[in-house]
Design goal:
There is one protein chain. The protein has 11 helices and 14 strands. With 366 residues, it is an alpha/beta fold. The structure holds pyridoxal-5'-phosphate.
Length: 366
């Protein structure tokens, strides 16, 4: 059996006709930038997140950068985030000339270790970016409480967590702004790059609207120094079709995770923990294994593709040498990087495929 980590072709087969029709409409109209599809999708996605406003941008990284900018983060400020994340979270802080201050990951949830957040706050701290990694919500009550106490803004990195919930609330709607990526492999993926910032503040939404579009208030009048980072009409047309399936696709991911958990019970790997307060949407199904490298090879030789999200934490990347961290700075994030393995996970994954994967893992001998 050959099983990819993510199979986008199976999904396209199910929605091909509708997607092609909507994309063809855009081609017929020849209106590609900030038109009806983006406008409608912003309204629909804000509704999905149970937030008031949504602003479509070029990618998830831009959603994060522009949100920090809209919140007034600038050079010399410090922004707290987590040592176990994709590099883009940290890049977004750097784009605003602010300093990323990292907090180690939690051993059980792999999200930011709440007990380390308050100790990272200084007089320069302006914001916290909790990352809902792999589709599981961070402990947002704790984050919001610390933010309130110290007067900090909160930007949720929900790029892997479309539809995830914390105590019944949708992620992205809890902090000042929530940021989403529509990179093709995400739970809601476009057919190219795309991103969205959601907020219930009209003021922040208006600022984001200016920043993404040259800072303009009319065609050639520019109120603030802006960017060009807009979700485009073709991507929005695709995303509108896919959004209608997202609930069902997330439920399917959750079902698959349940099957994995069941079939891996007692095997020599650690399965992911779903906390009682979170509705995990399993962007990734991540296990831990002591002999990760050998297990990955073992599975590969049996036709099973896996991934490592992520093999080198941001603080050990060459790009962030200037932060002055070294091996040992964030021991949990480093240990995770050496042990985590993402198994195939996508809504169309079949039960017998999961059974095959789990049998292969159970049969693994280092
Ligand atoms: C994908 C991702 C991003 C960046 O999104 P892009 O659309 O690729 O720019 C940021 N943070 C996390 C956690 C991500 O997974």
């Amino acid at each position: 059996m050959e099983i990819p980590l993510v199979d986008l072709k199976r999904q396209y087969e199910l929605i091909r006709e509708e997607v092609n029709e909507r994309v063809n409409e855009v081609l017929t109209n020849q209106r590609f930038v900030l038109d009806k599809n983006v406008e409608s999708f912003e309204r629909e996605f804000a509704g999905f997140c149970r937030a008031r406003y949504a602003v479509g941008v070029g990618c998830g990284t831009d959603a994060l950068s522009l949100s920090l900018r809209a919140l007034g983060i600038r050079g010399g400020d410090e922004v707290i985030s987590v040592a176990n994340t994709f590099i883009a979270t940290i890049d977004a802080i750097s784009h605003n000339n602010a300093r990323p201050v990292l907090v180690d990951a939690d051993e059980e949830t792999y999200n930011i270790d709440i007990s380390g957040v308050e100790g990272a706050v200084t007089s320069k701290t302006r914001a916290i970016i909790p990352v809902h990694l792999y589709g599981q919500a961070c402990d947002m009550d704790a984050i919001m409480e610390i933010a309130e106490k110290h007067g900090l803004k909160v930007v949720e990195d929900a790029c892997q967590a479309h539809g995830a919930e914390y105590k019944g609330r949708r992620v992205g709607s809890i902090g000042d702004v929530g940021c989403f990526s529509f990179y093709p492999g995400k739970n809601l993926g476009a057919y190219g790059d795309g991103g969205m910032a959601v907020t219930s503040s009209r003021e922040i939404a208006e600022k984001l609207g200016l920043l993404r579009d040259y800072g303009r208030v009319s065609k050639y009048e520019h109120r603030v120094k802006g960017y060009n980072s807009r979700l485009d009409e073709i991507q929005a047309a695709v995303l509108r079709v896919k959004l209608r399936h997202l609930e069902e696709w997330n439920e399917s991911r959750r079902r698959s995770a349940g099957v994995y958990n069941e079939m891996l019970a007692g095997a020599d790997v650690t399965t992911p923990l779903e906390t009682g307060r979170a509705r995990h949407v399993y962007h990734m199904y991540v296990i831990r294994a002591r002999d990760r490298g050998k297990l990955q090879e073992w599975l590969k030789s049996r036709g099973i593709a896996t991934g490592i999200h992520y093999p080198i934490p941001p603080h050990l990347q060459e790009a962030y040498r200037d932060l002055g961290h070294k091996r040992g700075s964030f021991p949990v994030a480093e240990r995770l990087a050496g042990e985590i393995l993402s198994l195939p996970m996508f809504p169309e994954l079949k039960r017998d495929e999961i059974a095959y994967i789990c049998n292969c893992i159970r049969g693994f001998k280092a």
